[in-house]
Every structure is written in structure tokens, then in C-alpha cells.
Amino acid sequence: MEFNLPNCVGVMDGTLFPLAFQPETEDAADYHGRKFQWSLTCLVVSDQKRRIRWYITGYPGSAHDNRMLRRSPLKVRKEEYFTVYQYIIGDTAFDPSENVVPAYKANPNKAEPDDPDERLLNKVISKPRVSSEHVNGMWKGRFPWLRLIPNRVRDKKSLTEVMKYIHCTVILHNFLIEFGDQHIKSWESEEDRLSDIAEPANDPTDDMPGEEHMLYRGVPAGAPKVWRRATVREYLREHHATFELERNARQDDSSDDEGEDLSAVATEFENYFSRLNNN
């Protein structure tokens, strides 16, 4: 269990691949993206090791992330990707469903939701969401071709060729992750809204809910789309205080260890200079 989110199997995020040239297609205007003049949209699901576990691309830059998800195999054939209790998390761009737990949207003119439990869920899932943004930055850092694709999109065949190249970069990215290739830290800042996060120090089996917990049950027949998100929210409300106490205890232990290490270094220096003076 990563980030205290039991049964969460990935983080979903959208990213854009800028195109160097205007597409020569009838729908060229649709390639105007949110940030670039011409681009392709890509939807990515990554895991805690920053591997890309699923993705879909080929949509023009104006395509909304949620629309892509609704039409994707991840949604249409969800039973092939999820067990009855697994889910992924994402930002407010996505609709809640039995397998997708997005952040809560804030009320108009406010930075955060009014409900404290909703704010708590947003806070907890913000860390893995930032990790997914790091994945996009690392991916494009390893393969700068993705930052400005020089291929011309003229028809379905040329678009398919671009998508094949993108697929190759996904395979190589995961290959490098598996074999411990060191990425450059600055790659992570390629995407917007990034901040550093650390891997959780606790054992993945700590604080796992029992199998009787609602998080280990399938979505009841006729349940609303928000059911899964509501169960995650309730779980966090019940356990967050425990998580905070454990996190603070780990930080205190780390501070004590650091103090002991510094004290040992200081003592070693004193002994060294004492020996020099005696000689």
C-alpha cells in the first residue's frame, strides 16, 4: 500500500506532446492544445515505481482527459484491468466511478472544498499525483523527441507511425526504470506544479484494512458513481490521525539519528586534532 491508499493500483494524469508542424488533416484545428499551438494528448497511468502501466494517445490536443478515459479500454473493458476492489486516482478532470477516485473540486471562488473530509482526501492523493507528474517529466527528459515531435501528421498512417514511436519510448522508459537507470533530477520539473516527495518509509503491509472493510468489497449494485471515492474518504477520516502520529514518530527518530551522527562526527574531529597537537 503506497501513500496510505489501500488497493490503489495507479495514478492517472494527462500530458501533451507538442507537434513541430501543423497537421495536414481536415481536423487540424482540433490539434490546438491547452498549452501548445499543435499537440497530441496522452493519458497515462503510472505506479509508485514511476513505471508507465497503461496509456492512450493519438487524440488531438484539444481532447479532454475525461472524454479520452470514457472511450478507452480502461473504462469500456474495466474488468480486464481491475479487480472488484482496485482503483486508480486522478485530478478533478475525471469523473468518479467504481475504479476512479478523483480529487474533489473546490467550491467557486475557493481554493479548497468546504468539507474537511474532502480536503483530507485531496491532501492525501496530492502526493501520488505529483509523483505521476514526475513520471511525465522523466519520460520526456529521457526522450526529448516527445517535447517537440518533428514528424508531420498528414493522415491516419502518419499518425499511427508517431504513435508507434511513442510506444517505443514507453517500453524503453519502463526498461530503464526496471534496470535502475539514474534519471536527472531536473527532468522531473519538466511538467507544471511539481514538488519533491519521498517514498513512504513504512512497510507496505502496515495499517492494511481488514477484508471486512468496505474497501475490500465490490461496488454494490445500483450504487452511485461516487461510492468508491466515498469509501476511500471514510477510510482516510478513520485512519488519518494514526498515519500522522506514525509519520511524526518516524521524523523524530530520523532527527535523533541525525543528531547522533553529527555528534559522532564532531567527536571524531576533536580526537583527530587532539592527536595532531600531541604529535
TrEMBL record:
For activity, the cofactor(s) needed are: a divalent metal cation
Transmembrane feature ranges: none
Which keywords does the record carry?
Metal-binding
**UniProt entry tagged with the keyword Transmembrane:** no
Q: Which residues form the signal peptide?
A: none
Q: Indicate the segments forming the DDE Tnp4 domain, all copies.
A: 12-174
Name the Pfam families on file: DDE_Tnp_4 (PF13359)
The segment annotated Disordered runs over 190-212
Q: Do the record's keywords include Metal-binding?
A: yes
| Entry's Gene Ontology molecular function annotations | metal ion binding
- What is the protein named? DDE Tnp4 domain-containing protein
Source species taxonomy: Eukaryota, Sar, Stramenopiles, Ochrophyta, Bacillariophyta
